[in-house]
């Protein structure tokens, strides 16, 4: 048997609930004659009388009494499913806008964002890379990931992990190094942020380190990495950012020594945003990713 039309069922439910064709017509924004017509068609389709027509009102027949609760439940289920679907569509439009230091973004965070999308499919991520301090009022970012020592005025800054640095070089340079002191004769790649760490690295090897005669000063870590892969010299880089190059043999770590940088990676956001759902969701996921990464062991205490 074919199902009755949804319109006729809605009309029946309204008339049964209100015990009136006139009130049902007002609720459904149709004429009383249209209500009467739809009820008559429904009764003909079902082969039963659903209402007893009295002078000034209608009441459900015995068949109508049995039918009404199930129709009411069905319509409520449809309405609830539609509301949930509509709410879900609205949630899908929600965004998390973030600004992230470039090398950390491309080398560690971005490859992991698919797992966030899988766990939170209703959130869209908008990522911009930047090294500058974020003015959240002007940039409209929800959060930022920054590398530094902090603090950031007016911001909540939670430490994600400490930066650690290892000395790396291309394989042909690696094979020429027999002892630590040999590094003093090699070109060193650096920028202003890591010169102090070079002093600390050599200090762990009980070697005094003066500014090298041959060195290359670069603007950022990406340039240092490119030069290191090209065989220009030896670099100090965080191994979490060059995992692929180490795994593929493009770079080799020189001696099992690392130094802790003075800088950390932080998640930063305005104080008034601490209870914002987007912040709480992303921050929770981010710390879970850090805890699962074996390269982060001992860095996030």
TrEMBL record:
Pfam families: HTH_1, LysR_substrate. Keywords: DNA-binding, Transcription, Transcription regulation. One of its GO terms (molecular function) is DNA-binding transcription factor activity. Gene3D superfamilies: Periplasmic binding protein-like II, Winged helix-like DNA-binding domain superfamily/Winged helix DNA-binding domain. One of its GO terms (biological process) is DNA-templated transcription. The keyword Acetylation does not apply. Residues 4-61 form the HTH lysR-type domain. It comes from the Bacteria. PANTHER family: GLYCINE CLEAVAGE SYSTEM TRANSCRIPTIONAL ACTIVATOR, HTH-TYPE TRANSCRIPTIONAL REGULATOR. Belongs to the LysR transcriptional regulatory family. This is HTH lysR-type domain-containing protein.
């Amino acid at each position: 048997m074919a199902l009755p039309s949804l319109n006729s069922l809605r009309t029946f439910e309204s008339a049964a609930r209100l015990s009136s064709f006139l009130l049902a017509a007002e609720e459904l924004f149709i004429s009383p004659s249209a209500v009467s017509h739809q009820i008559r068609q429904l009764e003909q389709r079902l082969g039963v009388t659903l209402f007893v027509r009295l002078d000034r009102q209608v009441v459900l027949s015995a068949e109508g009494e049995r039918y009404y609760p199930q129709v009411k439940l069905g319509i409520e289920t449809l309405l609830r499913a539609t509301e949930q679907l509509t709410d879900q569509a609205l949630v899908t439009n929600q965004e998390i806008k973030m600004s992230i230091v470039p090398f950390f973004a491309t080398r560690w965070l971005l490859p992991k964002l698919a797992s966030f999308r899988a766990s939170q499919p209703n959130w869209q991520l908008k990522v911009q890379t930047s090294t500058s301090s974020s003015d959240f009022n002007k940039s409209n970012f929800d959060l930022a990931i920054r590398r530094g020592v902090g603090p950031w005025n007016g911001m909540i800054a939670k430490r994600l992990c400490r930066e650690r640095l290892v000395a790396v070089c291309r394989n042909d340079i690696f094979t020429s190094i027999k002892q630590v002191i040999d590094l003093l004769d090699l070109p060193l790649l650096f920028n202003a942020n890591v010169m102090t760490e070079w002093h600390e690295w050599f200090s762990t090897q009980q070697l005094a380190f003066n500014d090298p005669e041959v060195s290359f000063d670069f603007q950022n870590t990406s340039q240092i990495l490119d030069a290191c892969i090209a065989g220009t010299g030896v670099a100090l880089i965080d191994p979490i950012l060059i995992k692929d190059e180490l795994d593929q043999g493009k770079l080799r770590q020189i001696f099992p020594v690392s130094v802790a940088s003075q800088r950390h990676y932080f998640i930063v956001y305005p104080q008034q945003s601490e209870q914002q759902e987007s912040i709480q969701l992303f921050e929770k996921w981010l710390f879970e990713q850090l805890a699962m990464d074996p390269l982060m062991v001992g860095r996030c205490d």
